[in-house]
Fold this protein.
Amino acid sequence: MTMERIGNDIRMHPGGPVSGTATPPGSKSLTNRYLVCAALADGQSRLRGASLSDDTRAMLGGLGQLGVATEIHAATREIAVAGSRANLAGDEVEIDVGNAGTAMRFLTALACVGYGRRRLDGSARMRQRPI
């Protein structure tokens, strides 16, 4: 592309074809759904192209509280999850999701699996939101 100044205006002239590759960021909603599935599964799962957002980190924290081992590989945007076969840990579990609404909704359902008391909480703003 070339540009030409004409007074205060700029006229742009098309150039040749443009090519390239772009990798969009992962979806936090899909990442959290996949994390729940991987947590309940049997064996090791690897999520590639995962979102590493605050919501995802809140979900990972909640899974950890429920005894699910996870490992983040930030450079490759991968998350490894050791499946629990739906054998979630904890007689008394407290999970704080901060502002992560997606994590709150999914962890509420997941906390019903197994035995024990599970308490989910979040920020003051989260307590105002409809869940």
Summary: The first helix runs from residue 28 to 40.
